[in-house]
Design goal:
single chain; Arc Repressor Mutant, subunit A; 10 helices; elongated
């Protein structure tokens, strides 16, 4: 795989045959081992339990009802096989779906909008981060989430700079990356991050990822 990305095994669930075949071809050409190519949640679960991959890439809407079968399959996989990473793909920028995905866990999880995955490099980058136990959320989805959150009281306590940092934090950026993006010193980002955690009442907890919790807390309006 490019850029030194470790070899990765991926199971794909997508009900549109042409799109599924295209994804499988692109991944295989890039050196990814595709362990399964499924058109339903039930088939995905059967394949994953039989031959566990590193990451499952699943569409939200799958047969038979084309509602949230993909999310429910992802929940089952995370419950039964927590070491498997999950990348959910959606046709829509839907905050409710994004929150449902984030609620599955704060590590090795991702949510991307299909129309914004414009190159195999974008997909490989997301898969690599998920394999490294990171959280990946499409920036357009983050904008929608934070737009909804502006109705919540907690948003009023954050400064414009803190909001900008929280938005980049929700995309999975590190403090160094945020500092570079906003042309700030890393210490300034660290200080603002601490202020965000304080304003959203997120004390230190070694068992929790406060960076992801900050976004979820904001959405809840806690």
């Amino acid at each position: 795989m490019p850029n030194g990305t470790p070899s990765i095994r991926v199971a794909v669930a997508e009900d549109h045959a042409l799109l599924r075949d295209g994804i499988v071809l692109q991944l295989s050409t890039a050196g990814v081992t595709v362990t399964a190519a499924c058109d339903s949640a039930d088939e995905l679960l059967a394949c994953v339990y039989r031959s566990p991959p590193d990451v499952v890439m699943v569409d939200i809407q799958l047969p038979p009802n084309w509602s949230d079968e993909g999310i429910r399959a992802a929940e089952a996989i995370r419950r039964d096989m927590p070491d498997i990473g999950i990348l959910v793909l959606s046709t829509y920028v839907e905050p409710a779906y994004a929150y449902a995905v984030a609620s599955i866990g704060t590590q090795a999880i991702g949510y991307l909008v299909k129309d914004r995955v414009t190159s195999i490099e974008t997909l490989l980058y997301a898969l690599g981060r998920i394999q490294r136990r990171e959280c990946v959320i499409d920036p357009e989805v983050v904008q929608a989430l934070l737009g909804r959150a502006r109705r919540k009281p907690a948003i009023a306590t954050l400064t414009p700079r803190e909001k900008s940092i929280l938005q980049l934090m929700a995309e999975g950026r590190s403090n160094n990356s945020i500092a570079k993006e906003l042309s700030l010193a890393v210490r300034t980002v660290e200080a603002n991050t601490a202020a965000i955690f304080n304003k959203l009442d997120l004390p230190e907890d070694p068992a929790a990822n406060r960076r992801v919790q900050a976004v979820l807390t904001w959405l809840h309006g806690r």
